[in-house]
């Protein structure tokens, strides 16, 4: 509701300035006119496009009534604003914290409690071991209950077989607590010393120093940590006891991470540094349709970080995810760093994390998502049991050909690329500066409040302007990626380039305005702020729409 | 150089006073973390009668980190590549500080006795091994004679 109100105000002021002609620069006035006209046009054309596309879509496959419904819905002020950000309207998602994910995990396993009759912590370990595949867990469970518990380390092997082989002289009564011992000889460090020791029910007892070192090493792997001597698992309590700090939190975090990873269709971590929010998209069925129309599902976490749900990248309109990925990859490729990454690593086929093979065989297990694949053909490992060798010959040939053509293409387009890359970088640098500017804006608003007696709400136009500026810059930045992949001779591309320079000019104008430091002057030029910010906003949406047009019509062909 | 951990001293002592049959491991004079190792080919395997030289290095974090082991002698084996690198679980994910130099070397000897071409490191060797096991074993025997026979 609040956003809608603010937007309405914007619209209003903007229209107002239209009649009032507060711009003294005539060319700016002309631009404003054009921008306004364009905006209306673009929204209209976009609506009609939806209809046509939907028509096509239902011709191909008339079953998807749900998508039709979401996309044909009329655009409210709010969704117009969303469009301005290059996102699709009506994307329903929620922002979660790690804690609420954990609650979801507990919820997931709770109904299993009756079947398994073990504690929640153990159940979580079980589920994690089975990659949150409940069916597989239940299947294995009915096959071999006790073996399973022993295998995962939830149960001591000696409890299931009669007659323990292990000398349990220190007994179960001292297990899972720190014990103080005189002249204890530790198997790991071979030192004889008077020290605290730790052991589980299995009786494998080691000095606390070795145990702590061992646990700290394993904490980052995210797997269940077992006893040093056997597969019996340490519980979170034990880990905290051994390390003397609540370090099992780290393990819990990685367990939460693995849960999110396993459900990466619906969940996405906020990619911003040190942000621990997770976006949960309940219904992903319309994502394909969005992608087809070259919209990107931009979302915002509770910390106001905005990013693309599909590719977990920052807001990249007018570019779509495809262009973004190619562009980012390309710009990295130019650096020596990526050269190394390209020649020494491969992407996990499942989660796209870069993997370096530093030894061992071709049977790869991704440390992130635990996907098993073949290093040679980058496909699933399962069918490789017997016929692994077939992939060696096949791929190497292909690779050579690819390498050759890509080299030629790179040489040909290097000049063009350097130009666009410089433009892109310049905008990125400016965006960074704007960001610092934005940090200072809070102080400015306070100054306005103190010196001019302006209310906080009234001072918010400054923050709004900074946000608009940032959005404009980001759109401008990514538009160079789109331009790079577009057919330069096409008329629409030329229009797109014109749009770029218009937005660029508008952005610089607004940026200059935000440099003003004296509170009195700021208040004097309040209408200017509104005007210029409104103009930037309109130019941004015009550029984004134009870019989407290029993509939809296939003039921008990312290859 | 930091002083040698007691664990390494003890293991070294035991390797010398109570050696594993068919395996020798001697620390280098200059670097007591670097071992020169020989492993006899297991009886009944294509590597029988061969004496294979390996190098073993104990990293700074040993025993929390697995020792690094590599074959120096050329060997025809699906899980050992041309550079002598070994694909063995206890050297990677299944390492535990409770294991020792001697257990690792025993595992390597066991790997010689039972190659696993379905989880290959040397693809070409594994390919041959699956296509025609007998022929591959013959090659392994030939290589052992050629490269792993002690010089007179």
UniProtKB/TrEMBL annotation, chain A:
UniProt keywords, alphabetically: Metal-binding, Repeat, Transferase, Ubl conjugation pathway, Zinc, Zinc-finger
Enzyme category, top tier: transferase
EC number: 2.3.2.31
Domain RING-type per the UniProt entry, residue ranges: 182-395, 186-231
Domain of life: Eukaryota
GO term, biological process aspect, one: histone catabolic process
Catalytic reactions on record: [E2 ubiquitin-conjugating enzyme]-S-ubiquitinyl-L-cysteine + [acceptor protein]-L-lysine = [E2 ubiquitin-conjugating enzyme]-L-cysteine + [acceptor protein]-N(6)-ubiquitinyl-L-lysine
GO molecular function: ubiquitin protein ligase activity; zinc ion binding
PANTHER family per record: RBR FAMILY RING FINGER AND IBR DOMAIN-CONTAINING
Protein name (Swiss-Prot/TrEMBL): RBR-type E3 ubiquitin transferase
Species of the source: Huiozyma naganishii (strain ATCC MYA-139 / BCRC 22969 / CBS 8797 / KCTC 17520 / NBRC 10181 / NCYC 3082 / Yp74L-3)
UniProtKB/TrEMBL annotation, chain B:
Top-level taxonomic group: Eukaryota
EC number assigned by the record: 2.3.2.23
GO function terms (MF aspect): ATP binding; ubiquitin conjugating enzyme activity
Keywords noted in UniProt: ATP-binding, Nucleotide-binding, Transferase, Ubl conjugation pathway
Residue ranges constituting the UBC core domain according to the UniProt record: 3-149
Top-level enzyme category: transferase
Gene3D superfamilies: Ubiquitin Conjugating Enzyme
Active site, per annotation: 87 (glycyl thioester intermediate)
Stored InterPro entries: UBC, UBQ-conjugating_AS, UBQ-conjugating_enzyme/RWD
PROSITE patterns for the chain: UBC_1, UBC_2
Record's signal peptide: none
Family as reported in the entry's similarity comment: Belongs to the ubiquitin-conjugating enzyme family.
PANTHER family referenced in this protein's UniProt entry, alphabetically: UBIQUITIN-CONJUGATING ENZYME E2
Protein name: E2 ubiquitin-conjugating enzyme
Organism: Huiozyma naganishii (strain ATCC MYA-139 / BCRC 22969 / CBS 8797 / KCTC 17520 / NBRC 10181 / NCYC 3082 / Yp74L-3) (Yeast)
């Amino acid at each position: 509701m609040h956003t809608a109100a603010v937007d309405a105000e914007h619209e209003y002021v903007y229209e107002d300035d239209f009649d009032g002609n507060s711009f003294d620069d005539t060319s700016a006035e002309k631009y404003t006119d054009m921008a306004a006209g364009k905006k209306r046009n673009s929204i209209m054309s976009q609506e009609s496009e939806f209809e046509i596309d939907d028509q096509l879509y239902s011709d191909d496959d008339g079953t998807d009534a749900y998508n039709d419904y979401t996309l044909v819905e009329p655009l409210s002020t709010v969704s117009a604003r969303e469009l301005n950000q290059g996102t699709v309207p009506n994307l329903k998602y929620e922002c979660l914290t790690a804690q609420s994910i954990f609650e979801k995990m507990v919820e997931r396993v709770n109904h299993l409690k009756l079947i398994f009759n073990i504690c929640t912590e153990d159940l979580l370990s079980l589920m994690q071991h089975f990659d949150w595949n409940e069916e597989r867990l239940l299947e294995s469970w009915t096959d071999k209950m006790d073996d399973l518990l022993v295998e995962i380390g939830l149960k001591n092997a000696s409890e299931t077989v009669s007659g323990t082989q292990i000398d349990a002289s220190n007994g179960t009564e001292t297990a899972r607590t720190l014990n103080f011992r005189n002249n204890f000889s530790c198997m790991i460090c071979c030192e004889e010393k008077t020290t605290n020791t730790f052991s589980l029910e299995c009786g494998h007892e080691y000095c606390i120093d070795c145990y702590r070192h061992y646990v700290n090493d394993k904490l980052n792997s995210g797997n269940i940590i077992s006893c040093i001597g056997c597969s019996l698992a340490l519980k979170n309590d034990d880990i905290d006891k051994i390390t003397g700090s609540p370090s099992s939190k780290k393990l819990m975090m990685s367990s939460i991470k693995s849960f999110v990873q396993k459900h990466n269709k619906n969940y996405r971590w906020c990619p911003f540094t040190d942000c621990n929010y997770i976006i949960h998209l309940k219904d992903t069925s319309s994502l394909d349709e969005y992608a087809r129309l070259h919209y990107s599902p931009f979302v915002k976490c509770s910390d106001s970080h905005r990013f693309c749900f599909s590719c977990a990248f920052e807001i990249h309109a007018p570019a779509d995810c495809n262009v973004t990925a190619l562009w980012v990859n390309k710009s990295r490729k130019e650096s020596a760093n990526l050269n190394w990454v390209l020649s020494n690593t491969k992407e996990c086929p499942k989660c796209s994390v870069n993997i370096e093979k530093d030894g061992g065989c071709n049977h790869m297990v991704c440390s992130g998502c635990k996907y098993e694949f073949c290093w040679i053909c980058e496909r699933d490992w399962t069918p490789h049991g017997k016929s692994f060798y077939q992939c060696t010959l096949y791929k190497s040939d292909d690779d050579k050909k690819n390498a050759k053509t890509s080299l030629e293409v790179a040489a040909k387009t290097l000049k063009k690329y350097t130009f666009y890359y410089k433009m892109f970088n310049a905008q990125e640098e400016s965006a960074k500066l704007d960001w610092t500017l934005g940090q200072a804006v809070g102080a400015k608003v306070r100054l306005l409040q103190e010196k001019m007696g302006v209310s906080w709400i009234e001072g918010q136009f400054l923050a709004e302007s900074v946000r608009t500026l940032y959005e404009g810059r980001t759109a401008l930045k990514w538009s160079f990626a789109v331009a790079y992949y577009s057919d330069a001779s096409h008329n629409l591309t030329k229009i797109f380039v014109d749009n770029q320079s218009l937005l660029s000019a508008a952005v610089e104008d607004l940026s200059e305005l935000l440099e003003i430091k004296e509170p009195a002057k700021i208040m004097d030029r309040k209408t200017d702020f509104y005007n210029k910010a409104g103009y930037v906003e309109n130019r941004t949406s015009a550029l984004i729409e134009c870019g989407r047009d290029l993509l939809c019509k296939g003039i921008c062909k990312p290859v | 150089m930091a002083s040698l951990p007691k664990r390494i001293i003890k293991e070294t002592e035991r390797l010398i006073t109570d050696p594993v049959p068919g395996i020798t491991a001697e620390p280098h004079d200059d670097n007591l973390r670097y071992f020169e190792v020989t492993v006899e080919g297991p009886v009944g395997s294509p590597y029988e009668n061969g004496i294979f030289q390996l190098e073993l290095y104990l990293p700074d974090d040993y025993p929390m980190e697995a020792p690094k082991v590599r074959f120096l002698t050329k060997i025809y084996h699906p899980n050992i590549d041309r550079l002598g690198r070994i694909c063995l679980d206890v050297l990677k994910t299944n390492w535990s500080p409770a294991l020792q130099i001697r257990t690792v070397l025993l595992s390597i000897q066991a790997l010689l006795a039972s190659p696993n071409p379905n989880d290959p490191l040397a693809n070409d060797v594994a390919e041959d091994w699956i296509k025609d096991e007998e022929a591959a074993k013959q090659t392994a025997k030939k290589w052992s004679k050629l490269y792993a026979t002690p010089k007179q």
